[in-house]
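Sample pair:
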Amino acid sequence: QQLDGDMAREERMVRDNADILERLRAEEASLNSENAGAAEREATTRPGLPDPAEKRLLVEDALARLEESEAGAIAAEQAVAEARGSESAARPPLQDAKAELQRIETEARTLSKILNAASGDLFPSVLEQLSVERGYETALGAALGEDLDVPLDRSAPVHWGESAIQPGDAALPDGVKSLASVVRAPSQLARRLAQIGIVEAADGRRLQALLAPGQRLVSRDGALWRWDGLTASALRAASSPCWASRPAWRALRSASLAWRSACSAWARAASASRRTRVACTASASSSASRFFCASRCAAAVGASALA
């Protein structure tokens, strides 16, 4: 609103300057008309006066200064128009960047509330302390499910306790890598992750028969095969997107930082355009004043020449 007010005041100033220029052009035309026969009249009616050629030089000099100041005023007005255009062009990108930033931050806050709803602020879930290689997010969510919401804090009613890998723990079927190889997690989850294998979806049912008690297999798209015969398709994992939402939340946080930077850059550009416009407006006003003074001076010289 302040910017619009400033622009309105400047537009009035430019219109006033244009009116002054038009009036002075009319005065200049009248002056030129009156000066046209001044030398002849003076030579015939007042032969005792100074040489008319000298007065003519004074008038021509005054008119030259008048033309120079008029050109400066016109150029200043053009600079104001260009500066106003640059400022107007800088506004939409800034407004768009602010709108996008607001959308991203709103979405990030919503996702954050969803992800933290289960554990609350008192006992942060173990999910907060996990990281997984890109592409294995859904597999991890399918393998651990709601256990990802369980905290590590021993004071919580339900929590993850210490459980180190034991020498007697069964190995996964030959050629199957464990989920622990793609997940960085606290030591409390080491034994659990070591007993979960990652397989291609086509191999899950065949390898399920080779599992030892407590073991399970998952595919990257979230299908699950457990040692006791329980099988779940990837559709089940798609209906529980808690962990899959975590990378989206992190991406939103990164996007938020990027758009904040963009907003700052566009704000600086808009501020620079506004300063340029203000400076050009002041210059235009000064040029109009100089033109006005030059016109008055030319008029006075012309009147003296006619006297």
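DSSP finds eight helices and seven strands in the chain.
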